[in-house]
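Before relying on records like the one below, remember that each one covers exactly one chain. Contacts with other chains, cofactors or solvent are not represented anywhere in the record.
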Amino acid sequence: TIYFGLLIISLLGPSFGEATREIQAKGKDIYLLVDLSKSMDATDISPTRIEKVKFELNKFIRNEVSNRIGIIIFSNDAYTHAPLTYDNNALALFVQTLNTGLLPTSGSNPCTALNLAYQKLIQESDMSNRSKSIILLSDGENQSDCDGLLTNNIRRFGISTYIVGVGTKSGISILENGVSLKDEQGKIVITKLDETFLKSLANQTRGNYY
């Protein structure tokens, strides 16, 4: 009877004390892609396009405490400004340092930032447990179309893409030291929001445009 009782107890598998085990967190990995071309200094969005972006990014980061966020900056080339992190206070500091003088090149090529974000998300994310997102903020003034292989891979790996247009369709001149910039022909340069390119990019990645 004693042996039989002990057998029943062993089959029930009682445990005592506190068991510890690793729990894998699930959440989102989000890369913020910020256009730092000279046109982001335009004042058609008050106080400037880039300052408005910084204001909105700070609000966004405060609401994403459970997700990892990284920042990529770009003009013609793209660079990692902040790696994926849960540290929202550090991210807020990185956001405050954003300005169009950070990068050595002029012009704008969002495709380089998309490619860098894609590579980072594939390399750094746990593909099975974390969803992946890209949020691109730009006025859309672009010099080249994105490679079809890149946009196909973004769709293939299920990376959610959100394109945010910054600026107005009517546009405005760009001031430098209080003087409007001019092109090689001496005409005042007017920078406008290029929704056509940004919407096309959202469509190619099966993303959303705002």
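The helical segments are 2-12, 49-62, 88-96, 110-124, 148-156, 195-204.
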